[in-house]
Amino acid sequence: MEDIRDIKGFKGFVERLTLGITRVLEGLPGVMDVRFVEREPVERRCLMSWEQKHECALPEDLKDFYLTTDGFTLTWSTKLESQPVPLGSMVINRLAKLLPLSQSAIFSLPNMPTLADLDTQEEPQESDGAPEVPHFDERSRILELDPCGGNGKVCLVYRNCTQDQEAQDSEVWFLDRALYWHYLSSSFTAYYRLMITHLGLPEWQYNFTPYGPSPQAKQWACLYRPLTSHSDPHVDPNGEPILNRLDPSKAFRGKVKPPQPKKKSPAQTGGGGGIPKARLSGTRR
């Protein structure tokens, strides 16, 4: 790493590692205090030791990531009434913190329910081609990539595991606070690009859930990612993207008074095709 520790070399290294997102953030209105934490790379022997300990083969792209830097932390703030407010956070746990998903110590008492109790019954298989959700028991091995600031957890998941055998294939899933799983990507590289693209905004992972992020998080997304800030990335039943549309006939209903019907004059009450009474009286003999 000595060849990139000089100012110009390391700055270029950060640009490549962050895909240039630091310059993008610094150019956004109100963004301040963009910080990237510099870390040394992980030694290859540490990677091998980790794989043996957890019986999981790290994907090659994640290995290359840790051989470049031991984790990733990039934070930024926004100016609110002349005061900095922490907002964006992009985190990939260090290798030492890439640990199996564990439950809180409050649930470690005897006879208390565990996460594995959620898998006592077989869940019905999805019929629309969606991947099978991970399990909390021995059928899956779940490793925490990002704690998401307490709003859930992004996990590296190995499904269809067998005891005493090294798990091979992994995916990236999001576990929300209600302990429901949501698929994010098939590879670490794809997830890394998602994280960079969403600028580390609060609750951005909830864009991949049926209910979306909170209203406050949506407001921040509308400010810094207005083109893709809607919570549902799919299309409406007509096959068109979901965008904000203004229908004047509905938005301004009741604002315009309907025209009043014209009152008929007394001469028109008898109808226009009748014969005057005076003419009728003159015809009598």
Lay out the secondary structure.
Elements: H1 7-17, H2 21-26, E1 31-36, H3 44-54, H4 60-66, E2 72-80, E3 83-92, E4 141-146, E5 153-158, E6 171-175, E7 181-185, H5 188-197, H6 215-224, H7 248-251, H8 277-282
Antiparallel strand pairs: 1-2, 2-3, 4-5, 5-6, 6-7
Descriptive keywords:
disordered N terminus; SMI1/KNR4-like; single chain; 3-stranded antiparallel beta sheet; 4-stranded antiparallel beta sheet; alpha+beta; 8 helices
Number of strands: 7
Helix content: 10-25%
Strand order, largest beta sheet: 4-5-6-7
The secondary-structure class comes to alpha+beta
> What can be said about the biggest beta sheet?
4 strands, antiparallel
Number of H- or I-type helical stretches = 8
CATH superfamily of the domain at 2-103 and 133-228: SMI1/KNR4-like
Order of helices and strands: HHEHHEEEEEEHHHH
Kindly report the oligomeric state of this protein: single chain
- CATH topology description of the domain at 2-103 and 133-228: SMI1/KNR4-like
Average pLDDT confidence is: 77
Q: Per DSSP, what share of the residues sits in E-state strands of 2 or more residues?
A: 15-25%
* CATH architectural name of the domain at 2-103 and 133-228: 3-Layer(aba) Sandwich
What separation lies between the terminal Cα atoms? 128 Å
CATH class of the domain at 2-103 and 133-228: Alpha Beta
Rg from alpha-carbon coordinates? 32 Å
